[in-house]
């Protein structure tokens, strides 16, 4: 179902691709929009095992699109460096494919929000609990279950 990368020399190892996914600051969630067009948005996330969690408003275009088609891809780009003289760019990236689940249990939603706090606001866990409690009713949490993961990179040779 998923094609192998064309450039075998650019494959990023599975563990490196997973590490990039875990450590990335943000990623791009791509969906098929309800209008038939591709819909990609930058989004904060937290991941654990083969699950990626996002939080969002309880309604909107993204959720309407997911209700119609829950298949998604998610891309994280790590370090990049333009190499002007070579007309190229050094990069590392991870792309995952999977299906998004809505209507998570209260426990899983809380768990996911705490994962997001751990990633983006370490040291503020107590303050975050108050924030989570106050905004929980107007916060939705989505889970992307990873079915396929691939990573690519182009490394530059160090100059002597």
What can you tell me about this protein's structure?
With 160 residues, the chain is an alpha+beta fold. Helices cover 28% and strands 41% of the residues. The protein is globular and about 50 Å long. It starts with 10 loop residues before the first strand and ends in a 6-residue tail after the last strand.
What can be said about this structure in brief?
The protein has four helices and eight strands.
Question: Which keywords apply here?
Answer:
single chain, 160 residues, alpha+beta, eight-stranded antiparallel sheet, 8 strands, 28% helix
Give the topology, please.
Layout lengths: L10 E2 L1 H10 L3 E6 L5 E6 L2 E3 L2 E6 L4 H8 L2 E13 L4 E14 L4 H15 L4 H11 L4 E15 L6
Antiparallel strand pairs: 1-8, 2-3, 2-6, 4-5, 5-8, 6-7, 7-8
Strand content: 35-45%
N-to-C order of helices and strands: EHEEEEHEEHHE
Biggest β-sheet description: 8 strands, antiparallel
Secondary structure: helix percent: 25-40%
Rg computed from alpha carbons, rounded to a whole number of angstroms: 18 Å
Question: What is the strand tally?
Answer: 8
Shape: globular
Point out poorly predicted stretches. Answer: none
Number of helices: 4
- Overall mean pLDDT score? 92
Query: Which structural category fits the helices and strands?
Result: alpha+beta
Distance between the termini: 43 Å
